[in-house]
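Re-run with default settings, no changes from the original entry. Doing this only to confirm the output is reproducible before filing.
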Amino acid sequence: MLKLLLAFMALVAPATAFATDSVALSSMVFVEKTISDADGKAKTTLHEPKVVTPGDRLIFIVNYQNRGAAVARNFVVTNPLPNAVAYQGTADAAAEVSIDGGKIWGALAALKVADGANRWRSARPEDVTHVRWTMKQAIPVGAQGKLSFRGIVR
């Protein structure tokens, strides 16, 4: 029980995302649930994670806002994944992942993991340790946006 509580605390604590000093970041996490409405149609809803259990689907959202006095260029956000979460993807094609703590980056399909004596296998979602976004467009003063990725509780 204590282990589940500690894992839950790691999930709901604000994610450590890194960016330039002029861009403020905040993060949120939600549990995604599919329920049936009164007509029996499936409806997906988001809830605050009061209790999480293995298999729960999560959505992590990182909000950003340029609070500086100048346009932010070459904006990069790096978000580590909690150990209790397996990466499930992002809709943003600009996102890259790392499977080695942030040393090497790329598309998941392009990364390889050492799997025994001189053997390699394709990286899988559960191998991801970090997600990174590199914004190609400058962020004007006052502009804001959000980035997101999905995970599942291990």
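Residues 1-16 have pLDDT under 50 and may be disordered. Residues 22-153 form a domain with the Immunoglobulin-like fold (CATH 2.60.40).
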